[in-house]
Structure formats: C-alpha cells, structure tokens
Design goal:
The structure holds two protein chains of two kinds. By secondary structure, chain A is an alpha+beta fold. Chain A is built from 23 helices and ten strands. In chain A, a hairpin with a 3-residue loop joins strand 5 and strand 6. Chain A is extended and about 75 Å long. By secondary structure, chain B is mainly beta. Chain B has a single domain, classed as Porin (Beta Barrel). Chain B has a 19-stranded mixed barrel. In chain B, strand 9 and strand 10 form a beta hairpin. The longest helix of chain B is centred in the N-terminal third of the chain and has 12 residues. Chain B is globular, with a radius of gyration of 22 Å. In chain B, 33% of the residues are buried. At the A-B interface, helix 3 of A face strand 8, strand 9, strand 11, strand 12 and strand 13 of B. Chain B: Belongs to the MDM10 family. Chain B: It is a multi-pass membrane protein. Chain B: It comes from Imshaugia aleurites. Chain B: InterPro entries: Mdm10 (IPR027539).
Chain lengths: 585, 413
C-alpha cells in the first residue's frame, strides 16, 4: 500500500518554507558544531522540489485514534535542495589545537592564528531509501526510527569546488554528518518536539491542532486499513521489547483531547502518592476530590496481568471491542480495562496512568450524564471461560446495542478484567488464575453481603457522583442474581453467549465488579476494615467506580463510532472472519 | 593567577638557570599576559603545600555546576630552598603574570660547572622535575617530566591520559636548546604525529661571559618587572638599551598532512633603558595571511598598558584589543612616616619597594575588544589567602551581559 502525497500545496505554501528554514536553522545550531565551523549555520535556501517521496506501508502494528505503530518504506529521489551558509576555520592547525588538551598543546605563537572563510554549501540530488518505524501515542509522543541508513547518495557542492581535495573532504564529512543526523538526531528531535507538544501547558492549546494534523496526515492511509483486521498479537515497541498489555491499555485511555483537560499534573502526583502509600502500608492517604479510592488489584491480579501480557493481545482501541467479540472469537483479544491496567503499582512509570484512569472515570461520568443510562448500553465483549468443570468453556458477551441496561452493564464489568480469549487452536493459557478461582466461586452464596462490607469505599462517595450516575438501580437488580448463581452462570446466561463462539474462551476473574458499583452508589458504608477476605478477593478487584464510569464512557464512544461509521464496522466484521496474520517485528 | 604548581615550576626554571623568555614561544608573552588572561569560572579552591624543598602537593576543589577536583604532586630533584611557599609570603608578581621585563642575556653555564666530583667519581645528577595531576571525576591524568639535560638543553615531556581522547591520550615531547644568542626548540606530538621546529635569534652583541655559578647566585630569584626597574637604576655602565629578536616556527602533522608556519619580530627594552620599558612584537602567519602587532608598555611600576591589532590580508578581518594591568599597593605601615625626618636630614627617601617586595595588595586586569567583550580580573591577597575573581561581560549582550563569573581561592603553606 502506498501513500499518494499531495506534494504541491505543501511546497507552494510560501510560509512553509520560511518556517521550515527557521526550524532547520535552530536545529542545526543546537547541537555542538565541529570546531571547524566558527559561525552559526544559516539555512539560506530550501526547496523541497516537485517530486514527492515514495512512501509504502509495510506493516501497521497498531492503529487507533490516539496511537499508531507502523513500518514504512520510504524512497526519495527528488530534486530537493538545501543551501547552507556558514563560516569555517581555514587553518587546520587552529582546529587541530582546539580539540586537544592545552596541557600537551605545542602552543604555537602565531601559526595557529585563524582565517575564517565564508562557505556556502549546496546539498542536492539527495537519494534516500529507508525503512521507517513510526510509533505514535498520545502519552509518549511520536517516535520515528530509521531501521537502516537512510542516505543513499548526496551531492555536495560548495564554494571550494575548484579544489578537489576540499570538495572530497566536504563530501565525505557532510555525508557522515548527515547520516548521524538522520539516524541519531532526527528521531530525538522529533520525539522531543512531539513530547513538548504534550506538556500540560501546551497540551490544551496544541492538542486540537495536533489531532487535526494527525488526522489529516493519516486520512490517506487510514481508510484502506482495517484496524481490526490486524490486532497486534505480539505488541512490541520499536526496540523489540514486548509491550505489556497494561501499558498499551493505558495508552488507549485518552481518546479525546477533552480528556486531557480533566486531570491536572497535581492530581497525577497525588495519585501516584496514593499508590505509593498503598504499596508501603503507609496510613497516609492523600485526599483527592471527587474520587473514590479503592485498593488496587492484589498480587494475584497483577500476576495475571503479567503472566498473560506476553501472550494476550493488548486491547486495540476502544471501539474495536464490539467487533472482536461479535466476530469470530478466534481473535486473540485482551479486553483489559484501562483502569485495571493503570492500577498496577508494580509498573513504575505508570502511576500517572492510574490517575488518568480515575480522572477519566470521573470525567466520563460527568460527560455521560446528559446521555443517561441509555447510552451506556453498548458494552461489549466478554469472552469468558467457565472454569466450573474445566472443559466447559463458553464465551459470554454483552450485546452492544440492544442489550438492556442491566445486561450490558454486567458484561462491561467483567470486561474490566483482563480477559483472554484463546485462539481456536485450543491453546489455553490459564496461568495464575486457577488458584483464586475457588475462592471467587465460593463467594456467590453469601458473596454479596461480604463484598458489601469489604469493598465499600473508605471515603464516602461524593453525592454528586452518585447522583450523576443513573445506573445504580440498573446495576443492583441483576447483581445478586449473577453473583449468587455464578456457579451455574453459564446456564443462566444464554442470551449473553454469542451463537458462533463455542471456542475456548475464558474469563479470568469474575463477578466482584457489580457489587462495588451498587454498594458505593447506593449505600456508602463507613469504615469497614479490610478483612483478609478482602485482601484475597481484592486481587481481582477493580476500582469499581471509575471502571463503571469508564465502561459507560467507552460504550458511549463505541456507540458514537458506530453511528458515525456503521459501514466501516460492518466491513470490519466481515474481515474478522479471517484472522489476520500475526505481527512481529 | 598561576597555580601553585606553575609557581613551583617557574621557581625550578629559575633555580636551574633556564631563561624562559629566550624562546620563540614566549615572544609576545607580555601582551598575552595582559590581554589573554583567563577569568576563573565558578568557585574553585586550591590548597597547596611545599612540604619539603623537593616536594609539593596541591589539591583543587571546584564547582561549575558539578563538583570536580584534582590532586597534583610535584617532585623536584633540585631543592627549591629560597622559595616563598606560604600564600602570605608569595610575591604577587610571581603568581600574577604581567609585563615580562627582558633581562640581559646571560651566557649559559659551562658544562663543567655542573660537575660534582666526589672521591674521584662524578656524582652530579641532571636536575629533574616530575609532576602529575589527576582530575577526579573525569579521570584525566596529566604528567610532566622536565629534565635539564645540559646547561644549554632542557627536555620537557608532557602527557595527558584521558579515555575520551583519541588513542586514550597524547604525549608531547619538547626539546629546547638555549644558547643565549639563539635558541631552538623541537617539538613532537603523538597526536597526528605533529612535528615542530621553533627558532629565535637575538641581534646585538654577544652576552658577556658569565661568572661561575657561586658568584652569580644573588640574582637567582624570579625576575619581575619591579626588580628589573630596581636593577635598572642600579646598572650604569654602557649596555644595550634594547634587544631585537627575530624568530619563526613551522609545524607539520605527518598524519593529517597539515601544517602551520609563522614568523615574528620583537623589540623590547632592557633594564638599562632609562625611559619606561616597552615591548613591541610583530608576528606574521604567511599561510593564513594573518598579521598581528602588539605594543605593551610599563607606564609605571604599577601600570601596564597593552594593545594588539590583528589583521588578515586574505579575509580583511581585523581585531583590536586593549588591556591594562593596574596594581595597588598596601597601605603603608606607620614606619614610613619617618620620611619627613629623613628629608630634613638630607637623606634620599628609599623606595618602598626596595625593602619590601611584598607590598602589593592586588592587581586589576581589564581587557576590551572591538566587539564589546570586556574581561575583568581582580587578584589579590586577603590575610593568608590569595584570591582571584573575574567576570566576562558582553557590553552588547543586552540582558545577559554577564557571560561568566568566577572566584578562585588559593592557600598554600
């Protein structure tokens, strides 16, 4: 697949050139210059020519509104040229001495006196051919890496072309410099630039612009690419490290620029302090407004996450979920809720995502308010494996659009867990989950009250939140049912089971979700000390309040997406029939 | 301000009768001292000691953003007995390089003067100086080996070991041959195999034969401008009042096939000159078309003025620098109030300097060039400490005029 560049409007824009020249000038003068260059390097002339580069998509690893990963092949044999002006030191002894320690310098009297010469260099006939790995995510900025040496050839002409020695020297030097520039400097510059754009101060202002730019730049490529046809199965970053599912899940958290405005840097800090205090048994709990704090997932949960992370596919964008479940269940799919992912304290860098999750939950709650409970129904996925008899496996999924409030909310809660549905080949991975199952399954009998006690938020919920959630009534009703009958859940929920998914799917952890929501929203109980039971069960526990809200938000987004682009999704479903090839890089 | 180790090293030159001024490399030392002084950066402490006449140590702790430091040790086979090592006793003129007053040429010692025989065997040694300095966080090692091979020659080998340098370090060998009337130097650097030759020829009459060592001892201290001025009044018999010298240097790097060349002329007054001392130099780099002329004058014992004009005949670039060095005396103790009594008795007032060499409180150096860059350096002594504080100011810099500021404090015992 290739891009069709609209090259001429870019080059026709006069202001583009002046801006590009300024950027290049600052970029060239930023890094320490070799001693032979004694003045600033000025970009005198820049022309991108009329021939666009040839860009070819080799692989799309991951694609969503807010992140992108792909490998491109780029060829360029255009007529672009660049003219630089600077002044160079013509005395070789001068440059030689300037790089040597003064202690062993021969300290010539005047033999090293300088002679600076203005120099004009024109770089033309640039031939590039490179494999580019492009990784974009809203949190981590844009990373662009050349896999090989991009520079094929280059013509350097300068003021000293008449002297062959100087010409050869310059040609050699500039080629070398340009190589290092492209291989080392350019990725760094681009990455820093993209990061700077997401610094909180710039974020709000830049975000929309950037999102627009991004969409513009990807519009050509996005259409033909079916994001769901290729959910990454072995997500890796550019250096080949396997990405944790939670990591990727956290990336998909913020799908809109408005989300970013919801939480501030201060709150992020507080939240990280919160997780830290939790990890260290500290009694100090920073106060965060409008937030109900829940214990993070226990060690078992964490182990699960990590155990499955290598194998499980990190969720692709939010909207992708409904398809995946409706389609063939053979798609390996991890539906890990963002809140869940962020909850991992074992992941050092991720504390901010925790906050992100919470902020998002709150924000989405507020946002979701006008929509009412109606909009939340499209909760997707659930491919769960019933572990009752070990062989009996089924997938449970919530209907996205048609399900009633209660129905949809229940699966969504499960969806909050990391659910791995294995491929049809029967390769079942049931890693660390097994031990905890008995405990979980025993609960249903008196599970409800127990959970009520254990899991009530320690901080009383804010009224506005509970009020703003229209769900509580809907949630509470089904909960006891599902909980109490969890042993026979498969039988009880035929409607949730997709007809075409007899495959081995398993859901890791079960039921606790709903109770939380109901408990917290309906009757905030005060100060129940966490019992050992709580500890054990909280292993699978999600921070319910924001999960439910998030689920609502996500569902809303899916709905919107669907409404906007139903044809697209339909097509996706078809594409889903054939599992895409695995990705590795 | 010179470091303590440089001070000791200069003392070694003096003690071994090596004339530092008779070299092409120091042709324009005066103008360099006044115009090219380096200003300290950040905060820096030196603690030094001449623990024995043969051994000196110095420790440096500095902070420019991050803390760094260095340890240095020096061994001299020649006992530096008369050296004032205490920072309260050091003559500021010896650590604040200023106007270099040329002394009358002196015939090198006869080799047999250096021979020491004991019970039929020669037991004299070549005087040697060893010096090492380790910079701590950077793990850079500097080493110097200095040896007086004969009364006319001196070998200087300096090395730097640093993992960041290509090949891990460089070695510079410097063989100097000083025959009073002319001096030649041969240089080899392992870095790109640089070879260099320098030569200097002094016009004028041959220096008078010197007396044997034991008679020439009184003036074996470091020469300074003030001493020179004092001596100038003392010497009366007909001597040349100035000296004209010409020299040149040529370098060639065997590996990078590049070289450099320069020639220079100097006229400087000698102590017998009756007016104020002055030095003029003209250097020319024919390859690069660079022409540089300097004029320095010791207007009074307390004031040096210097100027330099550079011109490049190829690029028509020119540069003008002016600088000054102004000394300040200590407040006189009350004993000098007796001058009026001496006057009444018809005695001459003794010059204060003649009986107290160490009466300088400090020295201000300033330089200014045509691009508006101003450098200021104030060096002096407070109690037992020598200090040096300097600033670089860019007069056209607008808001960020201060380009650098630093304080350096030295203590030695």
């Amino acid at each position: 697949m290739a891009f069709n560049f609209n090259w001429s409007p870019l080059t026709a824009d006069a202001s583009f050139y002046t801006r590009a020249q300024e950027l290049l000038t600052t970029a060239l003068n930023k890094s320490p210059k070799p001693p032979i260059i004694v003045d600033d390097i000025l970009v005198n002339e820049l022309n991108l020519g009329s021939v666009p580069p040839d860009l070819e998509i080799l692989e799309i690893g991951d694609l969503a509104e807010d992140r992108f990963r792909g490998i491109f092949k780029m060829c360029y044999t255009g007529d672009a040229f660049l003219t630089l002006k600077t002044r160079v030191q013509a005395n070789p002894l001068n440059t030689y001495l300037s790089t040597k320690p003064s202690f062993t310098s021969p300290q010539p009297l005047a033999a090293s006196s300088g002679l600076t010469i203005p120099l004009q260099i024109t770089l033309s006939e640039i031939k590039l051919s490179a494999f580019i790995i492009l990784v974009f995510s809203r949190q981590k900025g844009l990373t662009l890496v050349f896999r090989n040496d991009p520079l094929e050839s280059l013509k350097v002409s300068s003021t000293f072309d008449a002297i062959p020695f100087v010409r050869e020297y310059l040609q050699k030097e500039i080629e070398g410099q340009l190589r290092t520039l492209l291989m080392d400097e350019v990725p760094v510059i681009i990455h820093r630039l993209s990061l700077r754009l997401w610094v909180p101060e710039y974020r709000e202002r830049e975000d929309e612009e950037l999102a627009r730019d991004l969409q513009d730049s990807f519009t050509t490529g996005e259409k033909p690419v079916d994001p769901l046809a290729s959910p990454p199965q072995d997500p890796v970053d550019s250096s080949g490290n396997i990405l944790d599912a939670s990591q990727i899940a956290s990336l998909s958290l913020d799908s809109g620029p408005d989300m970013h405005a919801l939480f501030s840097q201060k709150n992020l800090l507080r939240l990280s302090a919160l997780t830290d205090s939790h990890r260290t048994l500290s009694l100090f709990t920073p106060a965060i407004r409008d937030v109900v704090f829940r214990a993070w997932a226990g060690p078992t949960e964490r182990g699960e996450m990590h155990g499955s992370s290598g194998r499980a596919t990190p969720i692709t964008p939010v909207m992708a979920r409904s398809q995946s479940y409706t389609g063939n269940s053979s798609t390996t799919y991890v539906f890990s809720e963002t809140g869940d992912a962020g909850q991992h304290p074992s992941r050092p860098g991720i504390s901010s995502y925790v906050s992100a999750a919470s902020g998002l939950g709150l924000g989405s709650n507020k946002h979701g308010k006008p929509h009412g409970g109606r909009k939340r129904k499209h909760r997707v996925v659930n491919l769960r494996k019933k572990a009752t008899d070990g062989d009996d496996v089924e997938s449970v999924s919530g209907e996205s659009t048609t399900a009633s409030g209660t129905m949809s909310s229940a699966p969504s809660e499960y969806g909050a867990e990391l659910v791995t549905s294995e491929r049809c080949d029967g390769e079942l991975v049931t890693p660390p989950r097994t031990p905890e199952k008995p405990a979980v399954q025993k609960e249903p009998g008196d599970g409800t009250p127990l959970r009520f006690k254990n899991l009530t938020p320690r901080q009383p919920r804010r009224d506005d939140i509970s009020e703003s959630t229209p769900r509580p009534p809907q949630y509470t009703a089904p909960l006891p049912n599902s909980q109490s009958q969890s042993g026979t859940r498969t039988a009880k929920r035929p409607s949730l089971r997709p007809t075409d998914s007899p495959q081995a799917t398993r859901y890791p952890i079960d039921n606790r979700p709903k109770l939380e929501a109901s408990a917290s929203s309906s009757a905030p109980l005060k100060q129940l000390s966490p019992s050992p039971m709580d500890e054990s069960s909280s292993g699978g526990m999600m921070p319910q309040p924001w999960l439910t809200k998030m689920a609502g938000e996500i569902a809303r987004k899916v709905q919107d997406q669907k409404a906007a682009d139903s044809g697209f999704w339909d097509r996706n479903n078809e594409a889903q029939e054939e599992p895409p090839p695995a990705y590795g890089s | 301000m010179l470091g303590f180790m440089d001070y000791v090293q200069n003392a070694f030159y003096e003690a071994s009768h090596w004339d530092r001024d008779n070299s092409y490399g120091t042709l324009n030392a005066t103008s360099r001292n006044v115009l090219d002084f380096s200003t300290p950066e950040g905060l820096r402490f030196h603690v030094s000691s001449l623990s024995s006449p043969n051994f000196a140590t110095s420790y440096t702790l500095g902070s420019i953003g991050l803390v760094d430091g260095s340890l240095s040790y020096l061994y001299s086979s020649l006992p530096l007995l008369g050296l004032a090592a205490k920072s309260s006793a050091i003559d500021l003129h010896h650590v604040v390089p200023g106007y270099r007053q040329l002394q009358d040429l002196r015939q090198p010692d006869e080799p047999w003067w250096w021979e020491i025989w004991h019970q039929g065997k020669r037991i004299d040694r070549r005087e040697t100086l060893l010096y090492g300095r380790l910079f701590l966080p950077r793990s850079t090692l500097e080493a110097l080996y200095l040896r007086r091979l004969s009364p006319k020659t001196q070998l200087k080998v300096s090395c730097v070991s640093d993992s960041r340098l290509p090949n891990g370090g460089t070695i510079l060998a410097h063989l100097q041959h000083d025959a009073a009337k002319h001096s030649t130097e041969y240089i080899y650097s392992t870095d790109s195999a640089l070879l260099g030759v320098r030569g200097l020829y002094n016009f004028g009459p041959d220096p008078p034969p010197t007396h044997p060592l034991f008679e020439a001892s009184p003036d074996s201290t470091i020469s300074t401008a003030n001493e020179a001025a004092a001596l100038a009044t003392a010497q009366t018999h007909s001597q040349p009042h100035g000296r004209f010298s010409a020299g040149g240097e040529i370098y060639y790097g065997l590996l990078n096939k590049s070289g450099g060349i320069s020639t220079g002329l100097r006229f400087a007054t000698l102590p017998s000159h009756t007016g104020f001392p002055y030095t003029m130099t003209l250097t020319l780099n024919p390859l690069m078309g660079n022409l540089s002329s300097t004029y320095s004058v010791l207007a009074s014992p307390l004031l040096t003025l210097s100027s330099r004009f550079d011109f490049n005949v190829y690029s028509y670039e020119s540069e003008l620098q002016v600088g000054t060095e102004l000394w300040r005396r200590k407040e006189k103790p009350l004993t000098d109030d007796l001058n009026w009594a001496r006057l009444k008795m018809g005695q001459k007032i003794l010059d204060a300097r003649s009986h107290d060499q160490n009466d300088m409180a400090g020295c201000l150096k300033a330089r200014l060039d045509q691009r508006g860059s101003l450098g200021l350096l104030w060096e002096g002594r407070v109690k037992e400490l020598l200090y040096s504080c300097g600033a670089m100011i860019d007069l056209r810099g607008g808001e960020n005029m201060f380009r650098g500021f630093g304080v350096e404090i030295q203590y030695s015992s």
